[in-house]
């Protein structure tokens, strides 16, 4: 990157700058013509100069031009026009000039804007490109939000400045010089006075701006730090709440804001002081003209005409001068920003761009060995964590690396994965240092997985296939308008120095899938097998079952869900397990469902809390009255309230049973208590239901007989509820009806989860192991039906959130491992990828992974840093590190027999 | 069976004989009613326990794992409480309990029981006494077995 922004702009927009300068110069011609024309119109046709005679005519558009040297003269005699005609003609010319000037202005502004935007695009891309090429050590000390704020906000003014970078000073400088020259022509000494004042302005003002620049720099840094801090607060919300440090963070943010305020206030004071001085200096010059010029005139050395001419000429000087000084300020401003950014992105040891070159073709399989030759690694503090280690890993070998003391094994794995660069020695793939090999070789031949993983915002599937997106492999076919749009995109990308790789192309390279040989089906196979290996399949299914899908987006899938629902019910009937789930039936009361669910016979998007739109509507209670359930419901509610008050009334308000055992809170209970104590409630006017009755009805709506066991729901009433379903629904006004999605055994319920849609009923409490039995049964049925696959697809579409935060930490670890397993590599480096997992799960997964990779045709090698040393028996070779050097190396059996240290560790 | 019937049955247990009716009602309300089919296990030996079961109807068998497989050591009928020991101390279940026929039970959660005991000081004393009674019976039985073995 160039040292100054002006140079950077010049480097990348040289021809365009020259072009726009020429255009601006060209635009000056009609501009000055337009200045001169009004005088001509007034003097000529209006005041009648040259038209003294009534029949006098003037020639219009006459000109003659002699080419110097050649002596060739060409010209035009013009049209003879009378006074009125001349007026019209000149006015039309004026209009024409206005249009031409406008067009020039439009063109120049657009051109400048485009120039600026292209440069902005270029510089932003270049910065991101640099981030991608930062060496690993530097990357550790970065704050993402600060980098983002630099790339997004701090470069923004560069775009606006680009268009004016050279045009403005050239133009304004020219104008100012012309004005100054004109003054000198009128009177040399007065001209010198003006020149002197200009010199003072040009020298002093920028000096004063030094402080402005310094303040600007501070402002920029503090603002960037603020962005970093805000990011930290967001990322660390959990920790902040856990340690009750929110006020500490508040204080921190407030003090930063105070600092920013101080700087900005200071900045304003200086800025306006400079402005004041600038204005003052330009006003002082006329003062000097009046005083000195006047004195000279009175003394008779200067005639009045000259003085007036000088003063007139001077009025053209301050304008351009002021703008020039403003331009200079803008230049310094962006220059400061540029330097700041330059410092942050000009890093030593940037990765050579050649290593990142796009390599679409599948590289030839390599059978080279991976080896570390006398490698030493220092950590960030400078301490040596690996000391001259030489280690060779052959293809097909499985190697366990363990630490006795220190963290040599981990650091070694990091070096193999290129996460850390050796301070001396080298790591070679075949004969080449892996730091010199392009990433298209190392990044595909070596898969590295460690504890800290990053996931990108998107679906589970996007993240699982992330490791296969090296280059666009399948062109996206554009048609018609889109094809033209695409060509435009490519052209523009080129002009701004951006790559024009197509993000819409197919990037997933099937030939890199772990299993098979490059067919799309193989990818799916690899994906499923990898999920199985890390025991994530059940989680994915669970995610699917928990999700709410829009049946209109995928009607086929919704239909399959209903099919699955039916198949499950049929199977339950066949096996005599029909009591497992009480289904929603249009003409039956579901004992395990609430009264509300039974009455509405449908699902609501929002839970039925008192402020639910449905329950807070008067229409709801009117409809209840229409079907004759209002009175009984209020009565039942009263009984329920009496019981609940009896049970919970004596508990302190902070008792955990509130909300846990009952959905009510302590305030709710005391509210009901007060309702029960009221006697002879006055009837509200116009026969509306009293608030108390509404509250009781709400209790009834939540009532489930087997849960409350109060024995108040008679069969008669149940029948009445079932019988009223249709009428009640039709009694509801349309806007309330929309809130309820009615159950239909043959239809998908869009507001319910997939699980609720499949089960379509309530689990009965007649079987204590019901959940487990249902799960097994549903699993069998869905596999037979081929539905499990589709369900898995739905799970793979699950959005894992920013950084995968919608997954549990364990799921993230497993996903991290699966992501590496899906891609075919020659070397897999696992650096304690499964912390926090139970011992036996860990063992199972290690076994699964080794088996999974063992069946791969390319015979990969596995390097696994184990935290659980006893698992090293599953590997061909064990390498034990101690204090950064290899202590023992050999097969598990040998080490167990020969090494006392190893034996002690395993035991 | 209704909530109030459950409360009547709970009251017959020595543990709860002197507990307020509304507290017992709270306990019953907080407890979940579960049904076991013949052969289903209420809990398995060695598992960690977080709840006790109050048998409302039916019979349960106590099984202990031996090298020759599970052996039935005793049985318990309606109106008895099983699994209460692991409610009070955090240990594994000492035996497997399995339903002999259809069993209806009230699943009493450990945390809920503790909360209620906190509110009734008398209940703790009652429970201690009942447990001591159990301990006395158990140790006298153990003594008998030892004596038999020696003889």
UniProtKB/TrEMBL annotation, chain A:
Q: What is this protein called?
A: ABC transporter ATP-binding protein
UniProt topology in membrane: Multi-pass membrane protein
| Organism this protein belongs to | Aliirhizobium smilacinae
Name the keywords, alphabetized. Answer: ATP-binding, Membrane, Nucleotide-binding, Transmembrane, Transmembrane helix
| SUPFAM superfamilies cross-referenced by the UniProt entry | ABC transporter transmembrane region, P-loop containing nucleoside triphosphate hydrolases
Q: Where are the transmembrane segments?
A: 18-35, 55-75, 87-108, 176-205
> A GO molecular function for this record?
ATPase-coupled lipid transmembrane transporter activity
Q: Where is the ABC transporter domain?
A: 370-907
The record's CDD domains line, in alphabetical order, gives: ABC_6TM_exporters (cd07346)
GO CC list: plasma membrane
Domain ABC transmembrane type-1 residues, every copy: 85-326
Location of this chain's protein in the cell: Cell membrane
Q: Which domain of life is it from?
A: Bacteria
Membrane among the record's keywords?
yes
UniProtKB/TrEMBL annotation, chain B:
Q: Which SMART domains match?
A: cNMP (SM00100)
Q: What's the name of the protein?
A: Crp/Fnr family transcriptional regulator
* Residues annotated as domain Cyclic nucleotide-binding: 15-134
Q: According to its UniProt record, what is one Pfam family this protein matches?
A: cNMP_binding
**Which residue windows are transmembrane per the record?**
none
Q: Name one GO cellular component term.
A: cAMP-dependent protein kinase complex
Question: Which InterPro entries does the UniProt record give?
Answer: cAMP-dep_PK_reg_su-like, cNMP-bd_dom, cNMP-bd_dom_sf, RmlC-like_jellyroll
The record's CDD domains line, in alphabetical order, gives: CAP_ED
